[in-house]
Design goal:
The protein is of the alpha+beta class and 307 residues long. Among the domains are: 33 residues, no CATH class; 105 residues, Sandwich (Immunoglobulin-like), CATH 2.60.40. 27% of the residues lie in helices and 29% in strands. The strands form five sheets. The chain has a four-stranded antiparallel β-sheet, with no helix packed on it. A four-stranded mixed β-sheet has the order 9-15-14-11. A hairpin with a 5-residue loop joins strand 12 and strand 13. The N and C termini lie far apart (63 Å).
């Protein structure tokens, strides 16, 4: 390649009539070529250097020395030396684009290497570090014979690797009674604070989510102006997220709140307790919590010291 670059460089020089003093500028020409090669390597991300280094480290390919591959849920690919087989990368794992196994490895069956498709702001999202990961080529969900919905064919393939009896029951999600993936959490706070309960539900057909307070035969918010309910689809397919918010909470808002999800196949619910305390009660409650935490930390330190 260096000889070809010299020829191209000389051709340009002769065309532009800038090499009339070529014998006196040989040193400059050599410096220019070295600078060009260095820039070319930088633009190429050091790929050529990586391949040269890999070739030196790999040595002669001896198939009988290759390690046995086991438990490769996404299949096998050639290693960076192009000699032995190794486990391919699974969905979500970092990868090397194209067909060259340089650093992260290659994607397995039914996967392609591309920018992380997860929403911006999530851990490992594309806008954080532009990392490329293995993404399933078939993103339509499938229903397994075990009654579980697999969000794409690759997730089903991974599960079927260790369960030979698993089959595709049908395309699309399995019809199921709602499942509460994230239930509301009990909480305690002071008078006048803003309280929020979250309930995330998976279901197909999609579920209807209602909020109720024990002791009141009414679907919230009812006619109470300081209570509001909001719902939207997500965060994943066939999921629904619902929030119950209480603004300017009062002691009378204390009680048990229940998230109820239903579709035409059945219903399910999950509850959480809300405690709204006055200033003195809240101070006493927080002091007790701190005391409990300190006792737990002391017990943990004692256990560690005993070893």
């Amino acid at each position: 390649m260096s000889g070809m670059r010299v020829i191209v460089f000389l051709g340009v020089c002769l065309t532009l009539h800038t090499c009339r003093a070529f014998p006196n500028q040989l040193s400059d020409l050599r410096d220019d070529l070295m600078e060009y090669e260095q820039l070319d390597d930088e633009l190429d991300g050091g790929t050529q250097q990586n391949w040269t280094r890999a070739a030196e480290e790999c040595g002669r390919c001896e198939l009988d020395q290759c390690p046995h591959t086991r438990g490769c849920r996404a299949g096998v690919v050639l290693d960076s030396c192009g000699c032995c087989m190794e486990c391919a990368n699974l969905e979500g794992q970092a990868c090397d684009p194209g067909q060259r196994n340089l650093f992260y490895g290659l994607c397995g069956t039914g996967l392609r290497c591309q920018a992380d498709p997860r929403p911006a702001g999530t851990a490992g999202g594309a806008e954080e570090d532009e990392e490329e990961v293995c993404v399933c080529e078939e993103q339509e969900p499938v229903c397994g014979s075990d009654g579980v919905t697999y969000m794409n064919k690759c997730q089903f393939r991974e599960a079927a690797f260790s369960r030979a009896e698993l089959r595709v029951k049908g395309k699309g999600p399995c019809k199921t009674v709602p499942v509460i993936k994230v239930p509301p959490q009990s909480q305690v706070n002071g008078t006048g604070s803003s309280m929020v309960f979250l309930c995330e539900v998976f279901a197909f057909p999609m579920a209807l989510v209602e909020w109720r307070k024990e002791g009141r035969d009414v679907v919230l918010p009812g006619d109470d102006p300081h209570i509001s309910v909001q719902s939207r689809g997500g965060p994943l397919k066939f999921e629904l997220s619902s929030w119950l918010q209480i603004e300017g909470a009062e002691p009378g808002d204390s009680g048990t709140y229940r998230c109820v999800a239903r579709n035409n196949l059945g219903s399910v619910s999950a509850s959480a307790v809300l405690g709204v305390l006055g200033a003195e009660e809240l101070s006493s409650y927080l002091a007790n919590r701190v005391s409990v935490m300190e006792q737990l930390m002391d017990a943990t330190d004692y256990d560690n010291d005993s070893y």
